[in-house]
Request: fold
Amino acid sequence: MFRLSRRQVLIASAFAPLAAHAARYPDRPIRVIVPYTAGGLAETIMRMLAVSMEARLGQKLVIEAKPGAAGNIGTQEVARADPDGYEILVAATNNFVINQFLLKMSFDPLTALAPIAKVADVPLVLFSNPSVPARTLPEFIAYARAHPSELNYGTPSVGTVNHLLIERLKQTTGIALTHVPYKGSPEALLALLKNDIQLFPIGLSVGLGHLREGKLTALAVAASQRLRMIPGIPTMSEAGFPGTASNWWGMAGPAGTPDDVADTLHKAVAEALTTQPVQARFLEMGMLAPEITRQQFAASLKAEAAMWSETIARGNIKID
Reply:
């Protein structure tokens, strides 16, 4: 009969707790940090996903808002946490691939975080005031060229994806538009309805009601595919201006998070995104459920960071 030596028994005993711990992840509640105020879109998304994720993981997700510094406070807290999968981040595009090029930060999210999953895509729709004699993006570009510096575009604030999308469009087409930053989407939407601004890129749910009432025009969707709620509106690429932009939300842990832990969380997110309640709610809110692997998500961050970094540098964009 084969017998283990005393040394082999001791070695096996020493590693047994580690193996058991890895096999049963998670064995306690998982803290989910959202780096924005409570009740916002990130928290709404996570509470939608939590029902399915908790059932798969067998543990509660404790969702906690940690706002401040454009989301950097909560993001940094996760970046400095133990990489054991029990403290994870759900944050916006800016926190992963934009803020580091605009703000003084003590960490680089591209290296300080371990990407886990993209949890939601919120494609931007380019809404225009109907007073502008343009019903498509090419018509708007032509009108803007014929009326240089006469048109204004609004955004929720400087440095947002909304802002950078139009700056990139300006850089690509050579049109001259005046940027009017607001303190949030509601103010910018009101300005668009009043024709104080003529263009506002924002998620579909913000402008859909006004679009149906004929108070707004939808020129194009900055996504890789058309949106089911407005199938007649082409993508920017279809309109002849390649580009996608969305206020997407992603999940990450601290750098060094074990692959098996990240895979477990990714699978829980992917499964939650396929459930009927989540699919229905995403459709209603004009959001897309991402279908990319953890590795694809990580690669996309590097590519998008490079794109926005170039846009920011070329446009000499700064936050005062």
Remarks:
- Confidence is low (pLDDT under 50) at residues 9-22.
- Residues 294-314 form the longest helix (21 residues).
- The first strand starts at residue 30 and ends at 34.
